[in-house]
Amino acid sequence: MTGFIVDSWPEPVSDRRCHAANPWEGRAPTWYRERIWHTAAGLVVLVTEIGDNPGMSITNNAENIWRQIRQQWSYALVVEHYDRRSYPGGRNLPESFDLVDMVGGRVRWTSVEPGWVAEQIALSVPSKEPQR
User: Fold this and answer.
1) At a CB cut-off of 8 Å and minimum separation 6, what does 98 contact?
2) 67: helix, strand or coil
3) Rounded CA gap, 57 and 41, in Å?
4) What is the pLDDT of residues 113-124, one digit of tens each?
5) Do 31 and 17 form a contact (C-beta atoms < 8 A)?
6) Across residues 119-130, what is the average pLDDT?
């Protein structure tokens, strides 16, 4: 057991490193870990900041990440996630989860409890990796 909340959840149907373009031309893209679960209501996409991300943080590039995910899956619930692995050197901070949405063309974050995310994932239905 690693001590991370997410690691106790069911296996996602997809778990991979992804990147989103940096809005500043010529700058490194934002790299992150993307985990996807199929649920009865759609997809839950967990976007986790990774410690070796050379670009903007997932929070600072949330708009591009959200648009990229929603272009692929219009019914995806996007959750931003940080844990101590998200920081070089592993800062001892608690895991955090924020529901990410766009309202009126602006990013909106809503802090959610890990239990709420786990409940969404508990609705998982067995499936193969989502079709793009």
Assistant:
1) 79, 80, 81, 109, 110, 111, 112
2) helix
3) 28
4) 999 999 898 865
5) yes
6) 67
